[in-house]
Structures
1.
Amino acid sequence: MSLISLNLPKSDGNFQDHQTLGNLVGHSDTLVISQAARAFHGLTVVVTPDTRTALRLEKALPQFAGLPVQLFPDWETLPYDNFSPHQDIISARLSALFELQQGRQQILLLPINTLMQKVCPPNYLANNVLLIKKGDRFSIQKLRLQLENAGYRAVEQVLEYGEYAVRGSILDLFPMGAEEPFRLDFFDDEIDSIRTFDVDNQRTKTEIAEINLLPAHEFPTDSNGIEHFRAKFREKFGEIRREPEHIYQQVSKGILNAGIEYWQPLFFEEMASLFDYFPAQTLFITFADIQQKAEQFQQDTQNRYESRRVDPMRPLLPPSDLWFAIDEVNRWLKGYPRLTITSEKIRKSAAKMNANVANLPDIAIQSSAKEPFSAFQQFRQKFDGNILFSVESEGRRETLLDLLAPLGVKPKQVGSIDEMMVQASTLVPNDNLQTFLIISPLDQGFVIENANGTSETLAPSINTSGQNLAIICETDLLGEKVQTRREKNRKTVNPDTLIRNLAELKIGQAVVHLENGVGRYGGLNVLDAGGIKAEYLVLHYANDAKLYVPVASLHLISRYIGGADETAPLHKLGSEAWAKTRQRAAEKIRDVAAELLDVYAKRESQTGFAFAYDKAEFDQFSATFPFEETDDQKIAINAVISDMCQAKAMDRLVCGDVGFGKTEVAIRATFLAVMNHKQVAILAPTTLLAQQHYENFKDRFANYPVNVEVLSRFKTAKEQKTILQNVAEGKVDILVGTHKLLQDDVAFRDLGLLVIDEEHRFGVRQKEKIKQLRANVDILTLTATPIPRTLNMALNGMRDLSVIVSPPARRLSIKTFVRQSDDVVIREAILREILRGGQVYYLHNDVATIENCAEKLAELVPEARIVIGHGQMRERELERVMSDFYHQRFNLLVCSTIIETGIDVPTANTIIIERADKFGLAQLHQLRGRVGRSHHQAYAYMLTPHPKTLTKDAEQRLEAMSTIDNLGAGFALATHDLEIRGAGELLGSEQSGQIESIGFSLYMDLLENAVKALQEGREPSLDEITQHQAEIELRVPALLPDDYLPDVNMRLSFYKRIASSENLQSLNNLKVELIDRFGLLPEATKNLFAITQLRLVAQTLGIKKIDAGIHGGYLEFKPTAQPDPMKFIALIQKQPAVYSFEGAVKFKFRLALEDNRKRLEFVENLLREIVGG
């Protein structure tokens, strides 16, 4: 359906028509591209001046064109960069090239510099895509070799594109271009099944029939490819240097260094252009300014070539080997029908015309004016035609409808422009003005004059009788734009596991053995004792003593947290010192437990409101959440709902990285509160953040009779007064605001829930006010990185804790670099970001010199649009700066730490922090979290003075930042803070000594045990901690063989999880996970599970030890055990030659048990007899 008059370029033999369409103001280009692509039955290639425009169209076109839209992305690196593109980008590029070869009708978007880039020839893909189907006969080793030749990397666990892992008869694989990784299960040499699996929990999902295996790189990396590289390199550069770090020597060994893509032509006889992939039936739509952008790119490329060609270890190929000149691209373009589009008005001719489009006048609402809507009202009165409002979400729709209601404007909602045209076509000319509303990504409006569908070159469409149409976007009226983001499932982390798991344990790190004290981890060793192989954890103690801990006893081991590794005590094996230390700590902890119980008692006695939970209503609301909840998000939501339904005041802390879904947890809690006719207060640390929360809550409650308001500087004094009056009368259900909400003049009629965002950002007085509210209002606190004291209190149960670590879809971890401050590094970091259409934070935390810093950056990077923001600016001015940066009017923000709790800017993906050594770990993490909010690779540069001037603490903090760059690291970083600073903050200096002496994890165990004992009215005993697991010695091999699970850290992690299983269900889940991920269990692993299962049963019976060998064995009971004597008497009477008692606690059995399996089965049956009789 056409709205804008358009002559489609014709293709007639040798003649290729080139039309130009001008005057495409606003975002009317989206409609023109959609119209043209739908009318043209083939491939439509849209060439944009930059990545930013391509990304805008990628978002907007699917709704209007109704066709597949694919972006062929730029590498997102600078020419001749030392960075390689992220695997996700390579995957998207290979996928796009593969799709082009399928010849489907689609729209392909690409920036001009990408069209100029030389690419792999089409036959490379055609010859290297492997179709794998269920039932195919393949040797797993042959497939493994093919994967290696295709450039796939062998790993222990598949997490990213281009990786594979082999475990027995199972092969995991993440092909380029695929949505999910696959698990191939082989039966002999036949593929028995192909299933997708979750990259985070590694569990399988859906069975499928076949997969296309694309190569892992855009160039061959097999031996032939490398040999071709060597020959072409010698031909190109002549004499070869012998240094091992030389690029030639590196590639010869199969090492592909970062930035290898800039030597890609050496892997092929001849490179190709994207035109080699385009079919004859291709329409080009080009933006008018691509010529200027291409010439600028050519100049930049040449400049970088000249400046970087001096490195003798990395001789560079000239730009002509990697890119086509724009003149050559222009010659190729002449061979296709082409439409050039521009927002400028052009002089008309046979091949040039202006679109029937005009700019909207300035109709923005002036909230400070006496008549805020006067400009819009004047436009309505003068405009003769239909009006289509475009908003980005349902919440914005509600905001707009509220604004328009007093004006008597009630637009009809439509799902598409086609639907609007159908409705508009039923009107007679000059009929009353009709208004419509659509939810779409358009954000710059325009007017279409005499909108019709009469163009003969387009598909038949409905005539709209030549009426005018104004498309008005929310930005035209409100001056704001909402950024949206997608999320998907990622992994779940138990907070306890993060601290106590041994998966990240490194050789030499301090660990605590419950019975022997603090030692150093020395690795995993397999020992052969009497012909029985078993794996042991080696611990080093004082005086070079070693302790071999059986893997079945790993429940006794935990990481030492309480201070730095080098200052951790090292105990002496066999001495009384550890027992005394532990006893002394236990006595002190008993007193702490009593204090804690007092806190618990106060919390329990504070009766809160028990919210009623209507599951059907709640599920209906939850279904409007546009993303899939992650597992840990679900756990957090369920925990919050459970808390609220109890008749005591909730006090829960939800910890999760910025943008990871904490707000949705608060929204669900808010829904439960308002459905129970209670009011909700949302407390944010800054005005801009409060405004963003307001938009989010408004959006989610758009379809419910819920009144959401915000108290901020954006409201006039009169509006604020009205809001406060409505709050007092109960007419406002949800009130969002800053610390103003805590002032005495804010009186709620019936407050039921308080949501606090980043509590540690509030001052002492505000915290005291919050403390008073804690007595009778449910409180939900959201935080990205809790300060250590908050974390410790939460872990100790003084506040309940939920952790969310699931990032949004395609969200990549932030690459973090610690660098000595250098102009070249700074310029490249900024350029890399702004050239891909992104924005940069430059943190200079000295307000006195921030202007000088901005001036220096303007000289260093003249391409950047710079703005300054800091805490000493007037608040209104700062808000304007942040709003301008948010709307991308600037692309480099020179700022202070004011951005620490700023608004979400998804297009800001690089942060540069000056003097990073001066910041604390939690603050560095929070600052780094300002970037990486989209699917683009984000970068964080920690700039420092000379490394020799750094303190030990600063070095450790920066090392932690560069090593923990994974998503959702806030919680792990807070525990790192405990290690670096010590855990003395927990409950005062006296307790810090106890934590340092026995470690944080054991301290926690003792504390939990003491609290439980006192709650049950008895004194805590150390025996309950040290003797709660039975010892099992059956002399059978029980381990995870290294040929079954080769990765030591993963093996250690599974040993710990198996040994720490608390019931048969969790043990069985582990067994299923191992089989699913690594294949059928080897015999030794079956034994390991059988022994662990025996231990769990033995514990319930009060058995201290089970010992069995080839001639029999015994069960030894704890003195406190109370087994049923009749069961044993029955066994002795039945087989007196086999069974007998030795003393009061030993039950012996004598018989031949030479076979391992028989021995296990005998003990299993014996325990079954004792349990069941």
2.
Amino acid sequence: MEAPSGLVEVAERRLDFLERLVDGALRKHELVDELGHSRSTVNRAIDELEAAGLVAGETDGYRTTLTGRLLARSYRRFLTVAADVDAATETLAPLGPGVEISPAALRDADTYRAAAPDPYRPLERIDGVLAEADGVAAALPALPYPRLLDRLRRVADAGEPVDLALTDRTYRHARERYADTLGELSAGDRAAVSVADGIDVGCLVADETAILVVFDADGGVHGVAESADPEAVAWARDRVRSLGEAGRDVTEELAAIREARAARDGDTGTGGTGRGAGSAGGSGERSDNDARRGGIGDADVSGFDAFGAPPARGGGGPDPLSAQGFVALDDGLLGGDADPTGPLHATPSFAEVDAGYVLDRTALRDGSRRSIADRLIEGLAAGDDHALVGPAGSGKSTVCRLAAVRWHRSGRGPVLYRPGDEGEPFSATDRLRERAVAAEGHALVVVEDVVDADAADAVGVARGLADRDDVSFLFDAREERYDDPDSLPLNPSDLEYRRRIESRRMPRLDERETERLAAHVAELTGTEAVADPGALLDAVRRPEGDRPGELLCLVHHLVRTGDLLDDAPSTAGGRDGNSGETDETGLEASVSRAVRDLTERPPPTAGVAVLANLLNVAGVSDVREFAYALADDETAPEAVQRALDRLSGTVLVPTPTDPDRAVHQEWSVLFLERLLEREPEPVVARRVGRAATRVLELADDPARRSRIRRAVGGDAPAMDRIERDPEAWAADAVRAVYGVGRRYPRLAGLYGRVRYSWIDLPDACPADLRDRAPEWVVRMYVDAGDLDGATDALDAWRPANEAGEAERQRGYGDVARRRGEYDAARERFDRAAALFSAADDRRGLAAAVRGRAQAAHFAGDYEAAYEAASRAHAIGAAVDDPIAIAKSLMDIGNALDALDGTDAVIDHYRVARGLFETYDDTHGEANVRTNLAVARRRRGELAAAKREAQRALDGYRTVGDEHREAVVLLNLGAIAEQRGEVGEAAAHAREARAIADRVGSDLYRAFAVSHLGSAAQLAGDLDRAERYLRDALAAFEDLDADSRRAMVAVTLAEVELRRGDLDAAERWLDRTESLLDEHAGRRRLAMVNRNRGVVALERGDLDRAAAALESGLEQARAGGFTAVEARALADRGRVAAERENTETALDRLTAALDLGRRIECVRAIVPAAEALAALLASHPDPDGLGVDAPGPIGEGSATDPAAYRDLADRWRADADGVAADFTASGSEAG
């Protein structure tokens, strides 16, 4: 490289002088004043510049020559460019040397990287710029996040210019996944889409802002550089234009997609179908029947309206809000037909709410009981958006409807209401915003199931109107989905806005609320209230999170006492609330009787019942219409009608205005579950398959659709919908049918094992969906924990493409990991990751890499776990998935915890917890708190550990995760055991064992029994401890869990040590090492070496004891295992005492006492205190020893043996009265 010339060196050194003299001539003393330099510095600078010909002296002072002026300006530009480039270095790091970027693109740019602590900041910047843009030009090698296309579509819809250039691969991916959005985008009058080569860095211009988008090797966003400098904007705009002009224009190709969609959906109108055609936005009134008509969703349970109410015939098109499920509350809607008993069977209509037929639910707050709806109204009236969160069957939609009706009746302002699973997917955000803003008074918008994909855009509208005090939003959300938003279809800004939404939880029923409900039901039905509502409440309590809600169960009990159900007579015991009768009059018993009765009847009753319940769980209306799909040459329509009549009062609870009204979905879920329990799985799968296939085949068979029209008397809205677009209907219907099992994995048996699936997909089903069904079935079995079923399904699945094979390999990996086959799991996850990468599926890639990290961690390969978790973190950031980021941070923290136990572990957990809290992921937050509790306990911070564990326990109980609840109970037991609180430790273990028995987890039961053994060992009940531990060992052997067997074996070694059987102890230690093999972590190694040291000490082999204890101490300190460290210190003190090295023994024993006292470790404190007492008692002159009094011992007692004996007695775990507690609520053998 050529060295810079002397001229350049002078300019660099004296640039401030040159730049100042460009503006005008100055004398030397003036330069001293202007620049603040000394006179000598000014003299030297002028001499150098004059000698170089860059300045010249004139009568009025010195000024730059032409050369000096040119060089000053050029060099300043160079420094500016260098500063811009330097600031963007990290952002540009993934780009190769051949990437074409002008320095102008970086002029005054702000850079943002996808890295902690704010890894999604780049996406927020992009989304924020696009949200308010009046024109966009972009050239992209990949999509930064999926909703970017929707942003561009909205700009194009507004008539603004949109120029989009994509690489061929990205275009094909977007056309396949987001065809409708691209088609609508390209139809804009000022929109153009092209496919171009040479797009190696993202370039985006929105109005007067330019953004460079840099992607990493995995296709994720690495960072962005954002500039509003005119040169940067001009360069970016020219870059996009040149790429677009050089590429292939695909605008017309994409416009054809929109034209096809318009042809499919454009024949909608407002004329008479026998139902009110009014809407949320137009004239007329929409019937409550139509307001409840729902749709069916994707296989991940999001809603869609393949079976929804058809648009009315004739006239102009409907208001988009009405077509997409919104209804405006008005007096006509509230004054419709109302059935007093309707809310006892199904979600109430608005007319039934207005008539007072629903209970105004209350909850205790600050010592007084208040209406939940009124509290919501108060907060909404103050302008705060709210979310009402609760489990299925808890009554949250009823509370939302009551709040909406009261808001309307109060005259505050209009109410726009979108029931769950209603209409088409909501996308008319601009129309909703306009309606809300233009409303007179304070507008209330209520959206049920807002976390579903078809309703989620409402969150963005709420965010956009957050600063207005005359518009409020009320959202309803199912708890299990709200608390685990792994796949929420929200953009980064909407996810961030969820923090500002006031979340309120549906409270559990208490005795007072049960009394109110009983009186309410008695008033509606004209019957006598039950005598003991509290006994009924006890009967319906359900700890399992996936069971029907307590409210649903309780209402069923109360309705049965009034003889309002047709399936069985009530009994006096049930009427009186006799608890001994609850099993016979309960919801489960009622459903079981219905299953028996319907399946024992001749065809087609069972088939119609199965289909009706399947469609009800899928959120489908028009059940009666679809039931006639089961009519054929052997089954007359009249037989179907008789079967439907038999379902009245159980599955169907018709009203004069809604003959298709069905029971609560949870009743149907329980029906299908009981059906699987009653009949062999292949029989049920065949029954379900036949019914589902007959419905799906309607997409291919116009003749059968005509027969259904004749059977129902001509008006067949569902058949109308199919005929408008059979292919679109078939796609939605297939997703809906399989969505039932995806939402409720315990119903996987309905679909067979892939090998004998009886559901035939129609010819109209799109090709890209045909390979999804086996994938969905596999995931059902995996999520349900049926590993044999999952394996059978995986073996039978033959994917048609790379993406399908990737999912299949990931499924095998999940099964292997859950079985403890960690090497096989890692191999499967590696295969899946390679296939996901080849298919350009980054979300799948992130999941596969996380799976590999977890498998490596469980296998004890913590370095590999750390590497995989770190990669998963990078991919999660790239795909704009903050929950995936949080989970990977937790995995990284777990790996670090196993590797070195530094403070970095806590830091990772804290960041992960912050993300989970930010996005209201209660389950994820509980997971982090569980890990934090373990890490805190390991460090001896027991008070903090207990706080974290208690909060984790609250979180798991909130979301209903009993498996994790058992884990936290065992952690709380371990904390109590470390403190010597044996009774509390045993109680936690017993409770965990009861949960394990209830959920059928052999693994957690084995954990609980081993904890009982450890507590018994601490209490000195060695025989009982051995029985428990051997039972746990056998259970772990059955599970092939070697690391867990090693855990038990080392505890059994300690039992034998306390008995004095050194040979037996050594055999258990040998077994421990053989089980651990090369996967021994520091904790296990520290425990084994410490115990080997104690065995050697008891044998009198002091050298061997010292070496083993030293090794154990090093491992404990390296891993941060303070309890093992304290015990090893005490044992090393005993070795020194045996060697008569008194000073060393005193130092080690007092250190063990200090550490043991700090971490509250009874197993270290007691032996250390006893050893100190014995050492001082045997010394001829204890007062002459220089003993530094340990923390719990006063200075005056530092050499008093009695003080240490008292200390040991105070901390000693007392076995008196504890033994009986071990067997409470369970057998002694565990």
